[in-house]
Amino acid sequence: IPQTREDEIKPGPVRTGWGQLIGRYLSDEYEIVNLASSGDWAWDWKFNIFPTVTYLAKKDDIFLLQFGINDRNREDKQVPTMTGAIVYMMETAKKLGLKTVLIKPQPSVGYSWGTAGEHEKPNGTNAGFFTAIPGIAKKCGVEFLDLFSLAGDHFAEVGKDYVARNYHLWDLEKDEIADRMHLSFMGADKLAEIVAGELAERGIVNTKPYLKNTAIDNELYTFENGEITHYINLTGDYRQVHDLVIAPYSDTIVRM
Questions:
Q1: Which positions ≥6 away from 249 have C-beta within 8 Å?
Q2: pLDDT digits over 17-72, tens only?
Q3: DSSP state, 207?
Q4: Separation between Cα atoms, residue 229 and residue 78, nearest integer Å
Q5: Which of 75, 162, 174, 222 has its CA 20 to 30 Å from the CA of residue 55?
Q6: pTM exceeds 0.85 for this model
Q7: How do strand 62-66 and strand 99-104 relate by DSSP bridges?
């Protein structure tokens, strides 16, 4: 997650987390407090960030928590370590009266996706951590949101090349993927839409009267400094365009 003013939410090939953009889909009654920390893992977040949650949160606040990606590289690299940290946070959140949702992370083009993706296989590098999440939610009696499957089904529908070029970081000059793990602005935006939509279906949140769609006439656009500079159609053919502009941070597309 960008941590500096210069790296805040903006169009273009910038690493972005869906937590930064979920407010675009929720009704204006909510105040979003995004405490995500890029590269963090459950055990570390429990000690360094979670105390802020316990200090700020009020009864009936909504607490969304997602872990499982970085835990395989941190601490003792053991699933029980991650599990213990998450269970502590879930139980504490419940005592505070928070509406808690535990989220299984999305897949990426670095792996297969869908219900039989690499994260689900015994030899997958994140398999044990990802598959532990539903059990933790059940044990703690909190809501479970399977973003892995929800996003994976969408990724499978639009295709791996489409996801790589639009939802991750793509090098337009070399015409190759630059980062197959982290999300682009558009990738984070799509996941924010998926998460908000699922939460709304369950009656946990209220959304805006519409859900913005970043696809226009079956084409996705690359936004840079408020201007649409490139687009990709469903065949993967990049072209330069000059007759479309988008106001920064706006949902309004204007055809000149």
A1: 9
A2: 899 889 989 998 999 999 988 888 999 999 999 999 999 999 999 999 999 888 87
A3: B
A4: 44
A5: 75
A6: no
A7: parallel
pLDDT tier for residue 228 given thresholds of 50, 70 and 90: very low
**Cα(187)–Cα(169) distance, rounded to whole angstroms?**
9
Instruction: Give the model's confidence band at 90: pLDDT under 50 very low, under 70 low, under 90 confident, else very high.
Output: very high
- pLDDT for position 62: 97
CA distance linking residue 76 with residue 168, whole number of Å:
29
Cα Rg of the chain, angstroms:
18
Sign of CA dihedral 160, 162, 168, 169: positive
CA trace torsion 81, 84, 88, 94 (10° rounding): 130
* Residues 81 and 71 sit within 8 Å (Cβ to Cβ): yes
Place of tokens 């059940």: 138
The structure tokens 């920390």 sit at: 37
Query: Between these two residues, 253 and 26, which has the higher pLDDT value?
Result: 26
Q: Tokens representing 206?
A: 């209220």
Which of 93, 104, 180, 190 has the alpha carbon at shortest distance from 147?
104
Type and span of the H or E element at 255: strand 253-255
Neighbour count for residue 94 (Cβ, 10 Å): 15
